[in-house]
Amino acid sequence: MSTARSAFRGPRRKLVLAFDVGTTYSGISYSVLDPGVVPEIKGVTRFPAHEHISGASKIPTIIYYDRAGNVKAVGAEAMKEGIYETAEDEHWVKAEWFKLHLRSRVGAGRQVTNEIPPLPLNKTVVEVFADFLAYLLECASTYIQDTHANGADLWASVKDQIDFVLSHPNGWEGTQQGEMRKAAILAKLVPDTTAGHARLSFVTEGEASLHFAVQNGLPIGAMKDGEGVVIVDAGGGTIDISSYSKNVGEAKDTFEEVAAPQCHFHGSVFVTIHARLFLENFLQDSTFLDDLEHIVGCFDKTTKLRFRNSEEPQYIKFGGARDNDPSCNIRFGQLKLLGSDVAMFFEPSVECIVKAVLDQRKVAHKPISHVVLVGGFAASDWLFNKVHEKLLPHGLNIIRPENHVNKAVSDGALSFYHDHFVRTRVSKITYGNFCHIPFDPAAPDHQQRLHKTFTSVSGNRRISDSFDVILPKNTQVSETKEFRKSYFRESESRNEFKGASFSVWCYRGAVASPKWKDVDTQNYTKLCTIEVDLSHLPLSPRFKASGSGSFFRLDYDIVLMFGLTELKAVIAWKQNGVEKRSAAKIVYDPDTTNDDP
């Protein structure tokens, strides 16, 4: 069941590109927008060195660099026959799974460090990401010019004003979006200007997958009766879990997120990692241990994809008739494994999905009835069947759209751009900031923190390091909802009021109502700094409480909007009784909190 889309209302032709940079595979979807015409979502289905595969919608997320750091082969080109030998001979360096280097170092992101191949020497993750984005842009340009009537003219007319949609895992926040924006600028997708930044938008993989599912077979109950649905986007690196419910009775199709989204590092690459650890141990005393990389590669490309039955032995074909080692079940170049061992490689991913879906059901603001699996890893029959088997007894309807599950994210990202179905989202963490509050001598928690008290410029006793909650975790937030906090600055000097910065902190722990910085300290992480220009705001002189002299005081509000796919902030103040507003700049801190040792 798909939903009607409106005609494009813009004054001139436009192009939108959605890039899904996956851990293992990447895809491109696009729309040519013509005034008065309903936009269609199309996919780039032909890539360099992939021409022989008709309708190939994804390419491997791989780049080869030479020793000077120059790009030598990307995507399908990096998988061509003979490339491995060339890379060996010329000492090229392979960058793969590099997307995972962008992850947050908080929580689960910290645990996968040892599993991720390192970046090439002297290359940052932003630079590698930029090289790959530049390649995707080149692929889109070639494909559109080759396949559209007057393709070269079409491209020339839109190439300097393309809108881009970049998708990312549910667990990524403003810091990671900021790094992706830097990569997009470095790749020359957009210029580093306000107008350039406005042409770039972000969407979580979970929300993109919902948009794909709406257009490609969301269950009837979810569409007609507003029954809750969990979208499981099982990809190469991450498994992204998101839950939604349709707003029934509204003229236009809109959805609300009904539980805080989750992101887990249990995608398909981790099945390969478990296989590698097992095989390394299994071949410990065999001469074939030297072939481990090749054997794991063969498992990844064949055995893993075909696995359906844990009762039957599984084979990794890696060599020829002369390759034999009976002690390790190797005969005629085939390594024989127990089906139950292969099942164990998948077990953490299966358990992760089942637990996450049941957790979502527990905390959701609406009842959950359906589970939709999308993403490249969802194409594994073993994964789908095990998840189905374990969730069915809980009364859930589990489905997998037939229509290209591995294109869900790039197509869904474009649907997000056009259709914008989600109007309410749920906060994953508690947002707030540290401030000082009036000291209350009768409050025991204030008495315990006497060393934190001070006398303000105006002569009042206050206490610092109190956590002021702006938005509690697991709260449904509409896109238009504003979170407003009033602040003031006091100083004897007028020069102190040129600008101010305001930090947004996140609390990620289990305390229901976090209140003080010194309780569960390690679970507070700084998200960003909001910089505001105060130079044009009206100042009023005031007299001190002691009567000895005067000081200046400035009252203003910080207004935050959390309900969008990116955090937005403005500063508000009163001038002659009328509210004025001005945009504030958000600067994300480098993601060093709880960083890897």
Word description of this protein:
It is a single chain. The protein is of the alpha+beta class and 597 residues long. It has three domains: 14-205, 2-Layer Sandwich (Nucleotidyltransferase, domain 5), CATH 3.30.420; 218-400, Nucleotidyltransferase, domain 5 (2-Layer Sandwich); 430-588, no CATH class. The protein is built from 13 helices and 31 strands. Strands 10, 11, 12, 13, 17, 18, 19 and 23 form an eight-stranded mixed sheet that branches. Strands 1, 2, 3, 4, 8 and 9 form a six-stranded mixed sheet that branches. The chain has a six-stranded antiparallel sheet with strand order 21-22-20-25-26-31. Strand 5 and strand 6 form a beta hairpin. The chain is globular, with a radius of gyration of 27 Å.
Annotation keywords:
597 residues, alpha+beta, 3 domains, six-stranded mixed β-sheet, eight-stranded mixed β-sheet, 26% helix, 13 helices, Nucleotidyltransferase, domain 5
